[in-house]
Every structure is written in C-alpha cells, then in structure tokens.
Amino acid sequence: MLLVVNSYGQVKDPIKIYPVKPLEKVEAKDVMWHRRLWREIDLTEKINQHLYFGDSKANRNYCLYDILNKYIQKGAIKVYGTENDNFTKELTINEVNNKTGDSVFVDGKLTYKQLESKGVVKFWLKEDWFFDAKYSEIKVRITGICPVKVKKDKDGNILGYEQLFWLYFPNVRGALVNYEPFQKQEGEPRISFDDVFTYKRMFNSYIIVRLGNKLRELKQNKTELDKKLEKEKTKIYYFNKTTQLWGS
Known about the structure:
Layout: E1 31-42, H1 64-73, E2 79-80, E3 90-91, H2 93-100, E4 102-106, E5 109-113, E6 120-132, E7 137-152, E8 158-163, E9 167-168, H3 169-176, H4 193-199, E10 206-210, H5 224-230, E11 234-240, E12 245-247
Parallel strand pairs: 10-11
Antiparallel strand pairs: 1-6, 1-10, 2-3, 4-5, 6-7, 7-8, 7-9, 11-12
C-alpha cells in the first residue's frame, strides 16, 4: 500500500509564539439582530491565492490547510465530523486520516493515497452576524471552518464536493496567529492568518444556499444587517443524500 505523505511536514514550528487577541465581549442584551450563515471560500480564485498555492512563491508563505493539518496531526486541535456542524462528534487522528484519504488506481492497482494539500480547493465557514447595540455596529464571529475537497471516482470523474471535517474556529486561532500568509517586507505591519479571518477578512466568498430551501422572503421592515447580507454573492448547492456530496 502506497502512502503519499502530505506536505504539512514542510510547515516549520513558529519562531515566535504570538498571543491571540481576545475579541470584545458581547452581552446578550446588546444583540438586537442575529443571523447565522455559511459561506464558501474558493481557493482557486486568484484573490484567495494567499490561502492556497499562489503562482509567486516569493510572496507566499504556507498554505492554510497545511498549517491546520500540522496542528491536527500533533493533536493540538480537536476535529469534528461532518454529520453536522455543531461540533458534537470528535474524531481521532486515524479517523481524520481515513477521511482525507482516497482509494485510487495507480498502474492498474487500487492504492490508498493521502490527500495532498492542493486537493483542498475550498473552505466553508460557519458565521454569526449580529448588531451590537452598545457600539451601534454590525459584527461577525466565525465559529467554524471546514476544508472541502473535490471528490472523484476511480476514473477521475468529478462527483462533487466533500466536506472533510469541522474545526471550532476559536480553537484554531492559536495556530493561525503564528503564521503569515505573505512574506513580510521591511517596514510593513505583520498580518497573520488569524488577522486574515478575524479582523481584516481578506478573502472573497459566497453565502451558501442549499437548493430546495426557499430564500428568505424580503421583509417590509428590513434591518441594516438584512440589507448588508442581501448585497453579498450567493452560491446554490444541492445535497446528494446517496453520495453525501454537494454538487453545484
């Protein structure tokens, strides 16, 4: 059996450990409106190449999936199954590796191949958007992140997209804060992967809508949050219960 080792081993331990900046506490009484939504980051888009494998190695550090996988393999980040996105079923490292691997034909023989980092082409985020009346601001909290790969059959035909596992986002910030998506130039402020997601939101994305679910009808008295979310791009998927895959 051939095992192709993932490139997470190329991710070195951080030279410096940075503290995670705590988010402002929000009192329940101050939350006037709230929406939970899911969004997709397509890593193949040029604007998202800093999270993937950009063409210019001179301006890129590590791939996001490699960083997450490094800490998963170390047992430093808990991993949860895709039965739901409520972080209810914790997976062992062996279960994670079995989930990410594929059986493929190599030289006519059925072979197990571990997922290569380039095979993760999307990330899904689970987010909570709300209006904080105390500061009169619309805020967002990422609660979950899920790598998604392209699922192919034995002949290489694309079947759809498959969620690999869910990570509770507050638990991964301690890893993301220590790595930078871009090589920092002298005099430039440091930007970590945590900054990319938590503070600067340096990515292009789409709100995910499941086919068959009616879009929420426009309200007569729309909140500012409703108006903001209506302007965002959406991507509609259907869920195949037979294959447990998402297709566009």
